[in-house]
Design a protein that fits this description.
- Helix 6 packs across helix 9.
- By secondary structure, this protein is mainly α.
- The termini are close together.
- The protein is globular.
C-alpha cells in the first residue's frame, strides 16, 4: 500500500508540473493580455514596452516559466492586479467555496445513493421512471439557469431563503476560520450558525443538483448489475436478513463505480461553483476565477487553476485508496 501511495504522489506531482506548463503557455496566448488590461486606453508602444520590461514579459517564455516555478516552489504565487498577494486572496475566498462544495456534495451523495438504490429495487415501476426523468432534467438544466429559477421562486416569490451572500447584513458575527457555519458553532453564536445555514441551502442545492443526478444514475445501474449476481440470490435463498443483504452484498459491491463518480464530481464542483457563486454573490474561489479571467490577471488565474487541479488530483488519489477499503479484492491485487 505504501508503494502505491508513493507512486501516486509522484504521478500527482508530474501531473501538476505538466498542467502548470500548459496553463502558463495557454494564458499567454489569450487575446489582449495583462499589459493592455493594466494600461487600458493609456496604452502606447512606449508604456507597453516599459511595463513588459518591469514585469519580465519581454523575456523568452521558457525563462518566464522557470522564474514562475522558482516562485511557486517557495510558496510565492505573486500578487494580483490590486496588489494583494494571491495566496492571501485565496486564503480569504477558499473557506467559502469549501463550505459550499462540502454541503453540495453531502446533499448529492446523501440523497443520490439512496435514490439510486430505491430506483434499482423498483426497476421498471413508476418510482423508477420518476427518478430517471428527474435525473435527466437535473443533468440537462444548466447550473446558472437553475440558480436563477430557484432564486426567483424561493427568494423573490416565496421569501423562504435570502437572495445572496453568506450572511445577513447587520448580523454581528465572529469569523475566526472563515467557515461561517463552523465559526458559529465554535463561538456558540447560534443565530450566526442558523443564518449561515439559511444562506447556504439554496446555493448548495443549485451546485449539487448535477452531481446528484449523476450519482443517482450510476448507483442505479451499479445496483442493478449486482442484483443479478449469484451471491445475492444465494444470500436471499439462505434467508439472510434484508439489512445484511442490502449492506454487505449489494451496496458494498455496487459502491466502486459510485465512489469513482463521486470523486470525479468532487473535482468538477469548482466549475459549477464559478456560476453558482456569481448567481448568489458568494465571494469564493469561483468569484476569484471569474474576476481573474475578466481582468486577465495572470497570477490570480495561475494560482486558482493550479489549486483546482491539485484538488482534483488529490480527490482521485483518495478515491483510488478507498477502493482497498471498500473491496478487499483490490488489496489482494
Amino acid at each position: 500500500m505504501l508503494r502505491v501511495i508513493v507512486r501516486r504522489l509522484l504521478q500527482m506531482a508530474l501531473t501538476l508540473i505538466a498542467l502548470s506548463a500548459l496553463m502558463f503557455v495557454w494564458l499567454r496566448q489569450l487575446p489582449g493580455g495583462p499589459i493592455e488590461a493594466m494600461l487600458g486606453e493609456r496604452a502606447t508602444p512606449e508604456k507597453r514596452k516599459l511595463l513588459e520590461q518591469a514585469l519580465g514579459y519581454d523575456q523568452p517564455l521558457w525563462i518566464q516559466y522557470g522564474r514562475y516555478l522558482k516562485l511557486i516552489a517557495t510558496g510565492n504565487f505573486g500578487a494580483s492586479r490590486v496588489g494583494d498577494p494571491v495566496l492571501s486572496e485565496i486564503g480569504r475566498a477558499l473557506p467559502a467555496t469549501i463550505e459550499l462544495s462540502v454541503v453540495a456534495l453531502i446533499f448529492a451523495v446523501g440523497l443520490g445513493i439512496p435514490l439510486g438504490y430505491v430506483a434499482a429495487r423498483y426497476a421498471g415501476r413508476l418510482l423508477d421512471s420518476t427518478v430517471i426523468i428527474g435525473t435527466l432534467v437535473g443533468v440537462a438544466v444548466p447550473v446558472f439557469f437553475l440558480g436563477y429559477v430557484l432564486k426567483l421562486g424561493l427568494t423573490q416569490k416565496l421569501h423562504w431563503f435570502p437572495p445572496s451572500g453568506r450572511q445577513s447584513i447587520g448580523l454581528d458575527a465572529t469569523h475566526p476560520t472563515g467557515f461561517f457555519v463552523l465559526d458559529g458553532l465554535l463561538t456558540r453564536e447560534w443565530d450566526a450558525t442558523g443564518d449561515a445555514l439559511h444562506h447556504l441551502i439554496l446555493p448548495a442545492i443549485t451546485l449539487g443538483t448535477i452531481p446528484l443526478a449523476v450519482i443517482v444514475r450510476i448507483t442505479r445501474g451499479s445496483v442493478l448489475d449486482v442484483l443479478n449476481e449469484d451471491y445475492v440470490r444465494t444470500a436471499e435463498a439462505k434467508g439472510l436478513r434484508d439489512q445484511t443483504i442490502r449492506t454487505r452484498h449489494i451496496l458494498r459491491n455496487a459502491l466502486l463505480p459510485v465512489v469513482t463518480t463521486i470523486g470525479l464530481q468532487t473535482g468538477t464542483l469548482l466549475g459549477g461553483a464559478v456560476l453558482t457563486e456569481a448567481v448568489f454573490n458568494w465571494g469564493g474561489i469561483g468569484s476569484l476565477l471569474y474576476e481573474g479571467l475578466s481582468q486577465r490577471d495572470y497570477p490570480r488565474l495561475q494560482a486558482v487553476i493550479l489549486l483546482a487541479a491539485f484538488v482534483f488530483v488529490l480527490v482521485n488519489l483518495l478515491v483510488d485508496l478507498s477502493y482497498a477499503i471498500i473491496d478487499p479484492r483490490v488489496r489482494v491485487r
